Amino acid sequence: MEAAKLLSASNLDVYRGNRLVLSNIELSLNEGEVVALVGPNGSGKTTLLESCAGMHRMTSGKVEWRDDNGEVRIVRDFEGRRKRLPPMGLTLQKDGICGDETVEERLSTALSISGCAPSSLDLNQMLSTWGLDHRAVDPTAQLSGGLRRRLAVLCGLSPAVMSSNPRVILLDEPSEGLDESARGLLVNWMRALAAQGNGILIATHDPEMIAASDRIVSILENGALSSETQDCLAFVGELPDSCPAIEPNPLASHLRWAFRMEVRNPIDTISRLLPALISLLLIHTFVDEKEILVSGNDFLSALILAPAFISVLVAPALIKRYAEADCGRWWSALLGPMHRISSSIIGASLILPLPLIYISWLILGDTASAETSQDVLESIWIIGLSLIDVAIAASAVHLLVADLHRSNAAAASLLLLVLVWPFIELTDALTIILNDGMTYGLGMEEPFTMILLASLTSLLIWLVAVFLPDN
Amino acid sequence: MPFGIVVISRKHVGWVFTGLGSLGAIITAVLSYTYAPGVDPDAWKAPEAYRILFWHVPFAWTSFIAFTILFIGSIAWYARRKEWGWRLVATGSDLGLLFGLGVVISGPIWGAAEWGVPWDWGDLRLNTYALLTGVALFIVLSRRSQADGINTRDTLSTVGLFGFALVPITILATTLYRERHPGLIIVKSEDSGLDPEISRVLLIGVLSFSLLMIGLSILTELSYRLQDELTKLQQRLDEVVH
Hints:
The structure holds two protein chains of two kinds. By secondary structure, chain A is of the alpha/beta class. In chain A, 50% of the residues lie in helices and 14% in strands.
């Protein structure tokens, strides 16, 4: 009986830059099969493997995966449809690991995204087998290149190891940088996983990996594929037992990951807080009370909101984390179409706007009467919440620009101009609060309406930046 | 060779239009001082500054056409990945930047003299053009800094559409703002009507800038077409070398 297909790519055309790298490709991966993708440098092995994970836009064709219910679904096609991959294992050529993650966290994250809930004993056992248990709590930035590669490979294999359902595993040059013992372990685990019904696709130059495959798919110079099966004589190793399955929740995993990274290394908070505080101190130093009294409450409102507004415009540190060793591409593959939505929210300045507005008011609001001051203190939080909406819209615009190959060379700030309007709406709202007090009516002159409009404007900008790009 | 004839004739047409348009723009500037009458000093804060209108309005008109080209090109590339669509994105962004800068530079100069402030956040046209000029500048800079390819083109055409999708947001924001800050000078100037001599000079200006716009569009599009040809030849050469 023919083995069931886990993955198939049909009629695939993929460009990299101006070059058509894959043309009219047909490829499938069956249960219990190890397929080696081979070909000279630049032939498109990595592009094909990553296209199978839905990571590349295609100009023709589609990629389909079978899920745990046995249903075949399109994960990406040339018409722009994209769906999240079923639980799977993925090792990219560049590890896809952020240096702030600890070894144990990384493995645990890779497993939880795939719907596995391993005990700490399971984690320790796997880390120990791969010679990583002594570095379990170390940040991955402190690992040598070889150990990092071991971890990346382990994270690619472990979702299949811990699952009782057949999984697809995609490994790009997995043996690159591994020593002899780790390569042996990799081959043993690959064969054992295939024996359990998992399908493994590897892009490789390594003869040892090729010998451990059931089928060799060669990418020829003209871009066509040739396929030949072989008898694999590699030893089948022992695998740890599978663990209880949970409903995969990649968004929750992503949120937890981002929170941990920021707590461990708060570069986002610092890079936003510093310009905001400097602007606040400069305002406090150079603008005296008389000027504020003469210029009126609209001037005071703008001064109070400016530091918080500056903080929300700063590019999210998440973009830098994503750029590290292709970490963002790993998340993008696993989150699928939710990647940009999730990233724009967790990458935004969610914590700072509120405290910054209150600090600004306490420093600059000396000129207001006690009654006004009380009213402002009780109602300014709504403006802070609306600024969080502005922050999410700004983050989405930064992520849109980050799609460019050399995003560091692009002037994202030009696209942030539009956020001036929500800022002006909020400034007007605060001016009215200062003049007449806070009201919650829905008339055009009411501060509450203006705050709602600022949030609505930000929401529209966010929707455009998140849903227009074909990511 | 038919291909050569087409290229040469289009180039000449482009140069003729550009030359005529430039000459017309200079004539408009001269006429704005020698032929166009002054305006009522009681109705205007800076009556002499109004003469900037003779370039400001044609700049706005031509930048509108350029942004429309950018929009059409963005849709054509985004939806169908048409090569001509990408050339329109390139042409529209180049010319949108050029003429858009004309609007957002001449507008504040006039505004500073007439309103006393260089920028009015309630002015719909100024803000819309500033936003679209920002988008055009972004696309022009990114086209220079990024390697050309489908992914880059996809992202930049998305940015082109992003710019246009922001226009209704800009309209919403500035209209609401204007409702609370009525009495903008630009509205008054429209209400006051135009002298026939002023209209005549303005018409010459609009026609001249339109010719200039057409000429530059032809030349820019042609240069990108030739650039495409060159890229293809270079790629063929790369294949031979390898």
